[in-house]
Design goal:
- The chain has helices at about 5-10, 75-90, 120-125, and strands at about 25, 30-35, 40, 55-60, 60, 95-105, 110-115, 120, 130-135.
- By secondary structure, it is α+β, with helices and mostly antiparallel strands.
- β7 (about 110-115) and β8 form a beta hairpin.
- About 30% of the residues are buried.
Length: about 140
């Protein structure tokens, strides 16, 4: 993993549609669920004084926001449910891996996917109705109007 930072700079795009990115897969210790589409993992290889943890934002999905970021009570409830789903899937998995693709546009986290027993968290979130595909365009509201 020490070469992670270098490899992230050179990960090429592939033609999985126009949005999918290639990635590098690593076994990982997942430390916490930030929200439905963001999971923190142990990154002991980061140099001091950096925190030994990074967050991976699941590429290509949007889950509802929770807490003060939610725009309405319905979005908060859906965001809580998405986070609980992600946490349950992680806890049930025997093998946990991350696929790192690129740095997130905000800089403090990476884009990628989480593989749980070889299954994509991205696809689990979409297939179970906890996320929508999202590639940076204007977001659709999760609030019922």
């Amino acid at each position: 993993m020490k070469k992670l930072l270098t490899s992230l700079l050179f990960v090429p795009l592939i033609a999985f549609g126009q949005q999918q990115k290639a990635g590098v897969t690593y076994d990982a210790v997942l430390t916490r669920v930030v929200d439905g589409d963001t999971v923190a993992f142990q990154a002991n290889w980061l140099p001091d004084p950096l925190k030994k943890e990074l967050s991976v934002r699941v590429f290509g999905v949007d889950t509802p926001e929770k807490g003060f970021r939610a725009k309405c009570p319905e979005e908060d409830a859906r965001g809580q449910a998405a986070s609980a789903f992600t946490k349950a899937q992680i806890n049930a998995a025997q093998k946990r891996q991350i696929v790192l693709m690129d740095w997130d546009k905000y800089g403090g986290r990476v884009l990628g996917d989480v593989l749980l027993d070889g299954k994509s968290l991205r696809m689990m979130l979409i297939n179970n109705g906890f996320a929508r595909e999202y590639y940076g365009e204007a977001k659709t509201s999760w609030c019922n109007k």
